[in-house]
């Protein structure tokens, strides 16, 4: 059983920074992709940033140049460093792991950016 636990969300003023973390436990054999997604009220969940097992990254256009995804394989943790935050970044941020046919999600962490 794989579990994902996010942490690090909170309230920050526009222009500020936050780092959210996702700790992965359990059988993590064969992880292909780790990523962060977000969902604001009344909207669909959308991808923010992903990182492959080869450390290739991809970002949503809206966060390019401001957010950085990274992973620490030894700690089984994936991070999302968020800089120059904007009110429109306010959402629940979810961690996702894809390992072959298996797909796991965390419970989410709230990020609120005040103007």
H-E string: EEEEEEEEEEE
Assign an overall shape.
Answer: globular
- Structural class call reads mainly beta
Radius of gyration, CA atoms, in whole angstroms = 13 Å
The number of helices is: 0
Biggest beta-sheet profile: 7 strands, mixed
Low-pLDDT stretches are none
Characterization of this structure:
By secondary structure, the protein is mainly beta. Helix content is 0%, strand content 57%. It contains no helices and eleven strands. The strands form two sheets. Strands 2, 4, 5, 6, 9, 10 and 11 form a seven-stranded mixed sheet that branches. It is globular. The model has no long low-confidence stretch (mean pLDDT 94).
Provide the fold topology:
Blueprint: E1 3-7, E2 10-13, E3 18-25, E4 33-39, E5 46-52, E6 57-59, E7 67-72, E8 77-82, E9 91-99, E10 102-105, E11 109-114
Parallel strand pairs: 2-11
Antiparallel strand pairs: 1-3, 3-8, 4-5, 4-9, 5-6, 7-8, 9-10, 9-11
Pick out its properties.
115 residues, mainly beta, seven-stranded mixed β-sheet, four-stranded antiparallel β-sheet, 11 strands, 0% helix
Briefly, what is this?
The protein has 115 residues and is mostly beta strands. The chain has no helices and eleven strands. The chain is globular.
